[in-house]
Write a structure and sequence with these properties.
Elements (H helix, E strand, L loop, with lengths): L1 H38 L3 H24 L6 H26 L3 H4 L2 H25 L6
């Protein structure tokens, strides 16, 4: 029973660290998105740009603070970028869809906030698998 409780607590704290480290990358993504969408680019293009930059920052923080790397950095980076590519498609699709609605056209800050909340869970579970799925043969 103690072992199971420790496992649940470990997962909880890992999610907290994931959320906190992600807060920095999310702040970068969100701030850059708003700058781009209100000054330079349409919503989907702004999302692609801001999300891509934030993904690289996020990978570096997750590697350092959140997950225990069980394989090569190269493997983790490539798989993380594959997962992030899926997250990019998911988030851009959501942003694009919401930006078709008059309410969200005028409130891109809400569209990005809602999208970020949805994509958080996708990213956590798949990136946890990327970092902690075991060592690859030499």
């Amino acid at each position: 029973m103690k072992e199971k409780l420790a496992k649940v607590q470990g997962l909880f704290w890992q999610q907290v660290k994931f959320a906190l480290s992600g807060l920095v990358a999310t702040g970068l993504d969100y701030g850059l998105y708003l700058l781009l969408v209100y000054r330079f680019l349409p919503p989907a293009a702004a999302n692609i740009t801001s999300y891509t930059i934030a993904v690289i920052v996020n990978f570096l923080m997750q590697k350092r603070f959140v997950f225990t790397l069980q394989g090569s950095v190269r493997r983790a980076f490539v798989l993380s970028m594959v997962v992030s590519g899926g997250g990019l498609l998911l988030s851009t699709g959501i942003i694009y869809g919401l930006s078709q609605l008059p309410f969200f056209i005028a409130r891109q800050y809400l569209a990005k906030l809602l999208t970020t909340g949805i994509v958080f869970f996708y990213n956590f579970f798949l990136k946890r698998w990327v970092f902690e799925s075991g060592k690859q043969p030499a």
